[in-house]
Structure formats: C-alpha cells, structure tokens
Amino acid sequence: MRQQIVAGNWKMNKTAVEAEALVRNVIEILSKNPSESVVVFAPPFVHLQRVAQIISQSPVHVSRVFTAAQDCHWEESGAYTGEVSAAMIKSVGATHAIIGHSERRTYFKENNQLLARKIDVAFKNELLPIYCCGESIMERKNDHHFKTIEKQIAEGLFHLSENDFLNVIIAYEPVWAIGTGETATPEQAQEMHAFIRDLLSQKYGGETAENISILYGGSCKPSNSKVLFAQPDIDGGLIGGASLEAEDFLAIIHSF
Ligand code: PEP
Predict the structure, then answer these.
(1) Distance between CA 255 and CA 119 in Å, rounded?
(2) What pLDDT score was predicted for residue 59?
(3) Helix (H, G, I), strand (E, B) or coil at 53
(4) Where are the beta strands (DSSP E) in 35-127?
(5) Which of 21, 54, 67, 210 lies 20 to 30 A from 197 at CA?
(6) pTM
(7) Which residue numbers in the chain have pLDDT < 50?
(8) How is the chain split into domains, by residue range?
(9) Helix (H, G, I), strand (E, B), or coil: what is residue 134?
(10) Which of the residues 47, 73, 96, 101 is marked catalytic?
(11) Distance between CA atoms of residues 21 and 39, nearest Å
C-alpha cells in the first residue's frame, strides 16, 4: 500500500551503545510528537535484534516504526562465510530488507539478476524489500538515466506476481547524489519518480502503480526534504548521513 515512509540507512556506522541511544532518542521524541509516516531504521546486522526489541517495547502510538536489514543473502542458508540470510534477519524481528543499494552494486558487484534472487528470498521469508535503483553521473550526462532505471527495475522486480509486487518499496537514489551533498532537484527527482510509476503502470496496471511507495534517496536532509516530499510521486526518503543524528532524522520524518 502506498504510504509515506522515511527510512534511515545507517550503513557501517554506530557501535551498540550509540545505536541504542539513537533509536531510543528518536522513539522518545516521536512518542511525544507523533508522525503519520512510517519510520524504518536500517542499522548494521549486529544491531538488528536490539533495535527491533527497543521498537517492539515502545509505546503503541509509535507502532508505525520498523526495522530493516541493509541487505540479505540470495540463498536460504549454507556455506557463505560472513553472510546473513533472510531467515536470520526475520528471526530477530526485522520486517524489511534494503536490496540493491548502489554501494552493494558498486563495491560488491551485485547485478540485477542477483538482486532478483535476493528479492525472492526476502519474500519467501516475509521480509518487505526496499529495492534501490539509481543512475551514475555518466549515465545521466549521456542521457541514459531513464534506460538504466528501466533496466534495473525490469530485471530486478518484474518477475514478481502483482500480489508480491504490491509489497515492494522502491527507492530511487541517483548514485551521484548519495553521500555527496549534491541532491537531485525536486524537478529531477519528480521526473524520475513519475517515469518509474509509469513503468509500473505499464507492467502491473495503473491501480497497482498508484499503490507503490517510491522513496527518494541522495543527500536528503532537513533543508530539502520538505520540497522533495511535496512532489506528487515522491512518497518519502531513504536517508543515509542525515539518519545518524536524531534531530536531523526527526526533522525529515516531520517533513510531510
Ligand atoms: C543512502 O545511503 O541510501 C543515502 C541516500 O545516503 P545519503 O543520504 O547520505 O546520501
């Protein structure tokens, strides 16, 4: 279902003590000043259980707060030293998994075919995928950005049934805007979000397309989140750097 969502991707940041303090801080303020948006914390794997536990013990009025893994393996289990399976993630109380973040695509050479398998294993284990797509600066300069996004979405997601597809969250994150301080303009972001929604409509029909949340990611911060989230096809954000400080993350959550 289409919802306003603000998800914080902590990447490889925060010790256990820092992680707990950040989540408690955000939740405490949210309980006094609630938000209509869905809030998702995506801490490193080692903190998932603790974060999920803190959330589950929080007051009812912050019940729209969830925990996501930043990735999951494409196999159910087996000899994959150092890796974490979807079943393990689910077993510690997480509900979502980010799949296909550009840092995974770049540093770990994850391609659309592999990501399609991760999407499947996530669904099999009842984790809701937050599927990331985004073009490089060269692709945008060469006017290839629409083709890149179309390929990432078609190859990663279009094998899904309409029923499963309705549970996908998409994050459009132009690679040139991630962690760079450079944000897509609201017009650039809206143009791509509308393009993505149109792709979904062609594949699954208009009603389904209207029901999918499409988040923007890439140097989203309190100073630009309001205008980005005001765009008709932007349903929230996947937030990196600005999710590491409670004050900034809360300001973004309250940007709708
Ligand atoms: C991200 O990692 O998904 C992200 C959008 O990072 P940042 O907000 O720091 O650009």
Answers:
(1) 30
(2) 77
(3) helix
(4) 38-42, 65-69, 96-99
(5) 67
(6) 0.97
(7) none
(8) 5-253
(9) coil
(10) 101
(11) 17
